Amino acid sequence: MSDPRLTRLEEALTHQAALTEELNTVVTAQARQIEVMERRIALLMKRAAEVEADQMSGAPLADQKPPHW
Question: Where are the domains of the chain?
Answer without folding.
Answer: 4-52
